[in-house]
């Protein structure tokens, strides 16, 4: 029996449906019950043949649909974040004397609570892809995030698009559906698992592969789209300005990117935003939009950035030297700004729920642990808070980046400037990882702070969430101790963002 790997295969809405597949599975069970001593092998072989036939029918009908006239669309202008025009907070300093004053146990009113983001698993398989024997072992080598990767090269020639029209693209897609390309898809799925790539990282990896295999051009886009769709993701192909464009859709609303409306889906493109597009309506059943959830940072080669020395102003012994993995920066740079469930405040949870890379943790965390070891939860939090408040230089995103941009923890540790959202994201990550305490983010228009659920008795400004008391900690209220809300925000209602 040939080796098999189950992949998430997106499939065309046609007469061959998952219901048909279930009926076939029932037939498998009946056949299995009636065979003799070799019934297991016969059952598996029969199942493999049926799945292979099913996949071939799906791809054949997809190709047939691609040959029909493609529909014309006009792109929609990018969505802007609701708080885009809100002026960001101006950092305020608190004197050491005021920071030491006795704090009132003041409850802050909650306007809304944003639930934690649920982790999304990659697309589930609907059919297996069989490995095919190869007479030669040649590979396509490519580099993604500073890591050399390779996949088995098909023994057939790389696909070519003879004409940039419906039939020309369908002919090339049909070529990719041949069994000789099976191992290419299988190996890509293995790379996704081995390197723990989230949906976005996997798409960008395939983009790198496509360019290495076919060169920068239409064929590279076609290969990227084919493997991504065969892996279970919902994509569309379009023609814009005479070039092939790959369109993807997301479970989360994406800001700052123009899109095409097709039904209830917003389709975004990896290439330059087109104004006019002709797009195929060919689709597979059970295809899934990508998730921008980052289960973990991509497991890629480590290239240390120059070390930074970061020292707390109030606690000089809270001084650490830290570097990050430079190879991850391109991933962070391309990561789209998004929201979940129509609530734009969820975008910060996407960043705050992602830990620093393991190498950075192994370097940074032991240094911080030595500085807080043996201290109470409050004392340890005070030290971490002042370290984030004073070791980093505050600057507005629009001055540095030209627009608002949130940082993953690694980015805050790397770049010379950060703002309130970056500090709150980093601080809540450190408190959860080093102290094991639950945290929330607190959103005011133009400002992001946070709060900690201490298991010891701690007083100060606080928010009650599901019966738990969270003490305010503001990494941008320079010099303020635990329990102080930034001046000017005392009487504001708070929007709470729960974190994992």
In short:
The chain is built from 14 helices and 24 strands. The protein is an alpha+beta fold and 500 residues long. The radius of gyration is 26 Å and the shape is elongated.
| Straight-line N-to-C gap | 44 Å
Instruction: State the helicity in percent bands.
Output: 25-40%
| Beta strands, count | 24
Secondary-structure content class: alpha+beta
Content of β-strand: 15-25%
How would you portray this structure in words?
This protein is an alpha+beta fold. The chain is built from 14 helices and 24 strands. The strands form 8 sheets. The protein has a 6-stranded antiparallel sheet. Strands 4-24-19-20-22-21 form a 6-stranded mixed sheet, covered by helices on one side. The model is unreliable at 1-39 (pLDDT under 50).
């Amino acid at each position: 029996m040939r080796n098999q790997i189950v992949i998430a295969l997106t499939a065309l809405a046609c007469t061959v449906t998952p219901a048909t597949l279930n009926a076939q599975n029932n037939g498998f069970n009946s056949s299995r019950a009636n065979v003799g001593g070799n019934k297991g092998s016969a059952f598996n072989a029969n199942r493999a043949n049926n799945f292979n036939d099913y996949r071939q029918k799906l791809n054949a009908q997809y190709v047939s649909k691609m040959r029909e006239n493609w529909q014309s669309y006009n792109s929609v202008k990018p969505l802007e974040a609701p708080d885009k025009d809100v002026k960001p907070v101006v950092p305020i300093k608190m004197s050491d004397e005021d920071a030491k004053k006795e704090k009132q146990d003041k409850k802050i009113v909650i306007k809304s609570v944003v639930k934690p983001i649920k982790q999304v698993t990659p697309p589930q398989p609907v059919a297996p892809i069989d490995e095919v024997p190869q007479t030669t072992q040649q590979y396509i080598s490519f580099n993604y995030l500073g890591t050399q990767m390779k996949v088995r090269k098909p023994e057939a020639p790389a696909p070519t698009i003879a004409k940039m029209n419906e039939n020309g693209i369908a002919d090339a897609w049909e070529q990719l559906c041949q069994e000789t390309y099976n191992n290419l898809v299988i190996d890509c799925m293995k790379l996704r698992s081995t390197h723990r790539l989230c949906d976005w990282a996997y798409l960008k990896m395939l983009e790198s592969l496509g360019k290495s295999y076919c060169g920068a051009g239409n064929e590279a886009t076609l290969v990227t789209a084919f493997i991504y769709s065969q892996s279970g993701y919902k994509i569309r192909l379009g023609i814009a300005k005479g070039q092939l464009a790959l369109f993807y859709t997301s479970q989360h609303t994406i800001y700052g990117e123009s899109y095409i409306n097709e039904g209830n889906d917003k389709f975004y493109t990896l290439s330059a935003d087109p104004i006019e597009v002709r797009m195929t309506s060919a689709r597979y059943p059970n295809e899934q939009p990508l998730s921008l959830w980052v289960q973990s940072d991509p497991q890629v080669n480590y290239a240390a950035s120059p070390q930074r020395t970061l020292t707390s102003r109030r606690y000089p012994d809270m001084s650490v030297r830290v570097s990050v993995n430079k190879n991850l920066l391109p991933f962070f740079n391309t990561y789209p700004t998004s929201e979940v469930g129509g609530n734009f405040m969820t975008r910060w949870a996407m960043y705050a729920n992602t830990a620093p890379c393991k190498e950075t943790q192994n370097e940074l965390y032991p240094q911080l642990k030595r500085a807080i070891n043996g201290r109470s939860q409050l004392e340890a939090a005070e030290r971490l808070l002042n370290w984030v408040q004073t070791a980093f230089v505050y600057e507005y995103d629009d001055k540095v980046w030209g627009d608002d941009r949130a940082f993953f923890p690694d980015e805050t540790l790397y770049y010379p400037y950060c703002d309130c959202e970056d500090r709150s994201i980093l601080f809540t990550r450190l408190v959860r990882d080093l102290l094991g305490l639950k945290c929330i983010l607190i959103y005011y228009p133009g400002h992001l702070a946070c709060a900690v659920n201490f298991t010891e008795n701690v007083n100060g400004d606080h928010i009650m969430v599901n019966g738990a008391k969270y003490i305010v900690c503001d990494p941008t209220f320079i010099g303020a101790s635990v329990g102080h809300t930034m001046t000017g925000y005392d009487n504001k209602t708070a929007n709470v963002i729960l974190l994992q």
